Each structure stands twice: as structure tokens, then as C-alpha cells.
Amino acid sequence: LGLCISRASASVLNLNCCLVLLPMCRVLLAFLRGSQKVASKKTRRLLDKSKTFHVTCGVTICIFSVLHVAAHLVNALNFSENYNEDFLALNAANYRGEDPRKLLFATVPGLTGVIMVLVLFLMCTASTYAIRVSNYDIFWYTHNLFFVFYMLLMLHVSGGVLKYQTNLEEHPPGCFNPNKTLQENMTVPTAFEELFPGYTTEPFPEDLSVPEPFVQNNFMRICSEGPKFQSHFPETWFWISGPLCLYCMERLYRYIRSNKPVTITSVISHPSNVLEVRMMKDDFKARPGQYVILHCPRVSALESHPFTLTMCPTDTKATIGVHLKVVGDWTERFRDLLLLHSNQDTEILPIFQQRRYPKLYVDGPFGSPFEESLNYEVSLCVAGGIGVTPFASILNTLLDDWKRYKLRRLYFIWVCRDIESFRWFADLLCMLHDKLWQENRPDYVNIQLYLSQTDGMQKIIGEKYQALNSRLLIGRPQWKLLFGEIAKCNRRKTIGVFCCGPNKISKILHKLSNSSNSYGTRFEYNKESFS
């Protein structure tokens, strides 16, 4: 039973160790998302579940690893206690009663298995939400132990503990070996052996006929030789070699693509600990809603982090930009390196000081579900705090030229705790509002700003923000009423719902998107999820 469970769990582990790497191939996912061959919107939405798929495979690996280890602990005990000299090739133990701990710590399969369990334990515990939020560095460094895990996995399956019979035709299961049976059952008296020391029992004559009823018995066949066993060829290599090579080739391609540092043109410190970095990179193309991975060697030699593009390159400008919230050690060190005087609220560094910027490498761009927001006729975009960054690039793109896209109406909902947060993109919203009014399309974008916490100040400071002050509401949105109003105004249409914010808001929007309405309006839910 232990061998059966270990073999079955190993097959499940092979499959999941193969699949868990595929969602991490970001370039492949971005290519599929932007490829014309994947024309179905529903199919492209499946790519948004890449992180969920990765986590599911990881949890499955943990569960079946426990089952696999438990089965092999039973196997080690059985190999020791049930040692049989008749089948030396099948015995993992060297003698009866051998300490099972030797099989675990003194053999290649056992030792690599123990180390893999320790590595997997570190990766799993560091992947919990509490550790990722409190100390992302621990999660990042331990997760990169996956390469050690896969190297040990290849060594683990090369031990050849489990074997199979190679001569089933010559020695079928349950066969009868006359020579061996007679030699084992025949006993010679001791006195006879003393008188005739050279006497040996004659082997069973090969030409002696066996009674026909004995031969025709359903459960008895004559075997011509003893059983022969050989180790299984490690099937794990077939499962993981392809995805592992694909992942390694992609990482090599990403390294070559991002080995040249970008040119930082300006750094702006916004209210509420938000930093904006604008830069330029040669031959860089990106679609609205995509994200990049930033790597600054002076901050960390190995660590890198994803940030959504808030400004994409266009035909008229080659500048790209990101907004990042300073909430951890990496972003704090990055901010201190970029800002000459970090205590100032706002600072735009001039061109002649660019030599003081640290080297910054940009890897990407990579796809996200927000790319689909321009492919709907009507889209509802909901942002919570700094979650507005994916929509900033979309608004910038619409400001550049909104007529080239399928989108004909955009509902933009932005919820913030403090009034100063709206100033991150207040200028962008006002410029887009004024442009649409000038082109006689004021209904193209419906902007609603919600201030969830207030201290009596209810207006965005500045006369130029009057268009936003009239759209500023106190409290939280009434999501059910909002969905009902949007469904009523867009009867029998499919509306794309895009959310980047707290899980609480995400769950509410997901539930409302799946609920039916009397207007025949269909809501399709999408959520930001960095892979």
C-alpha cells in the first residue's frame, strides 16, 4: 500500500511541478494576450487567472508532498522489517532490521527528499499573506529557492528505488519453476551427506513431461527463468524538463532585453507617500494597462518589483512613467536614492542633475486584465487608493486619442481615504474632462470621486480642479444602486468591470457582476493580479 500511495502521489507531483512554472512565464502570457490568434475575450480572461492557477498548483504540491513523504516513511520501515534474500534486487535495505533512518539520510533519494521537504516548507510558510505583507523580502528570497528544489528533484528520481520486472514473458506472475521448487523442497539426510559428500541433487529433467491437467491449470504456468528487475526510468524528467527549459529561456530573454538602464527624466514626490518616476527607454512599446518590473542594483542586487505603467509611450512622446507608494524597505531606499532632499513634498529634478540618479533597469512590459478595458463598448473602472495606477495609463491614452478605440463610455470610480490622494491624477482628469467637452462628448467619461474619510475639508484645493470638486462625494459608493443605474442606462449591453483595490471592494463587485438584472445587461468582472 505504501508503494502504491507513493507512486500515485509522485504522479500528481510530476504534473503540478510541470504546470506551476507556466503561469510564471510572463512574456509568454503577454504574447498570448496580445496575439490576434487568441481572439476570444473569454479565452484571454482565463490568462488573468494565472496567479490563482499558480497558487493552486503550489498548494497541491504541498498536500501531495506530505502524502508522498508519509508513504515513503512506511516504505522505509517495510524495507527494513520485510527484507527478503530471494529478491535482493527489490530490497532497498541491505539486511533485515537495518535502521530506516539510514535509508532516509544515507541514500540519494532519501537525503534529497529531506532537503526538498525543508525547501518546500520555507517556500510555503513565506508565501502566506501575513509574511508577504509584513516582510516581502522574505517571501521573495525564499520563493527563488524553487531552482534548488528542481535541481534536487532531478537527483531525487535518479536513485532507482522502485523497480519493475523486465522478463514478464519468461517469468509471468504466479508461474511454476520446477528446478527451483524441487531444489528448495528436497532435503537430504545428514548421514547420507557424510557418506557421499560429493552428492548433489539432480535438477529436474527438462524433457520430462508434466501432466497436461497441471499445465492447463489457469493459475499455474511453467517459467523458464527467474525474475529480473530494473529501475524505472525517471518520468519526472519528461514532465519538468520542458517547462523548466521554457522558463529558463524566458528569463534569459528578459535579462538580455532589460540589461540596458533607462534614462530617468524626472522624479516627483506626490502627497501621501507616492513617488512618480518618469523615464525613457529605447524601442520600448507598451499597451495601456500593462506593468513593468523595476530593478535598482543600489537598492538590492537581486530584488525587483512590479509596477503598473501610468504613462505609456505614444506616437508623439516616448516617455513612460510609474507611480509607486512608499510602503516597504525597498520603496523607501529607492525613494531616498532618487530624491536629493527627501523631506520636500514635491520635487522635480532638472536635467543637469540626472547623473546623480542610480541605475534603473526596466523589464517588461507584461500583460494585465486592464488591457481589455478599451475593447468593451462600455467599461466600469473602480480604483481604491493607489489602485488607480492601471487606469492612469488608460486615461492618458484616451487623452491622446480616444476615437481609435472601441470604448464609447467609461465609468470611472475612485475611492480614497484622504483628499490629497486625488491630486495624484487631478490634472490628468481635468484635462481629459476639458477635451471631451470641447469635442462635444461630455458623456464619454463619467467621473465619480469618493472620499471615505473626511475631516471637514471637502474640496480639492485649487481653482483649476472645479470640474472635479463637483464630482466629489463623501462616503462610500452604494454599489448595488450604482450597478442598477449603469445597467439601466446600457440595456442589453456587455460591460467590462475592472477593479484594482482592496479585496473587500473586489468581492462586492465580483458578486454584483455575477448577479442578474431586469435590463438584460451583462457585467464581466476583471481584477488586477500581478503574476
Automatic annotation (TrEMBL):
FAD-binding FR-type domain mapped to chain residues: 257-372
Annotated protein name in UniProt: NADPH oxidase 4
Transmembrane segments: 12-32, 53-74, 103-126, 138-157
Function according to Swiss-Prot or TrEMBL: NADPH oxidase that catalyzes predominantly the reduction of oxygen to H2O2. Can also catalyze to a smaller extent, the reduction of oxygen to superoxide. May function as an oxygen sensor regulating the KCNK3/TASK-1 potassium channel and HIF1A activity. May regulate insulin signaling cascade. May play a role in apoptosis, bone resorption and lipolysaccharide-mediated activation of NFKB. May produce superoxide in the nucleus and play a role in regulating gene expression upon cell stimulation.
SUPFAM superfamilies reported in the protein's UniProt record: Ferredoxin reductase-like, C-terminal NADP-linked domain (SSF52343), Riboflavin synthase domain-like (SSF63380)
This protein's record includes keyword Ribosomal protein: no
Pfam families tied to this protein: FAD_binding_8, Ferric_reduct, NAD_binding_6
Entry keyword Glycoprotein: yes
Organism: Cuculus canorus (Common cuckoo)
E.C. no: 1.6.3.1
PROSITE patterns tied to this protein: FAD_FR
Keywords annotated in UniProt: Cell junction, Cell membrane, Cytoplasm, Disulfide bond, Endoplasmic reticulum, Glycoprotein, Membrane, NADP, Nucleus, Oxidoreductase, Transmembrane, Transmembrane helix
Catalytic reactions of this protein: NADPH + 2 O2 = 2 superoxide + NADP(+) + H(+); NADPH + O2 + H(+) = H2O2 + NADP(+)
PANTHER family, per database record: NADPH OXIDASE, NADPH OXIDASE 4
UniProt main location, coarse: other
GO biological process: defense response; superoxide anion generation
Gene3D superfamilies the record matches: Nucleotide-binding domain of ferredoxin-NADP reductase (FNR) module, Translation factors
One term of GO molecular function: NAD(P)H oxidase H2O2-forming activity
InterPro entries listed in its UniProt record: Cyt_b245_heavy_chain, FAD-bd_8, FAD-bd_FR_type, Fe3_Rdtase_TM_dom, Fe_red_NAD-bd_6, FNR_nucleotide-bd, RBOH/FRE, Riboflavin_synthase-like_b-brl
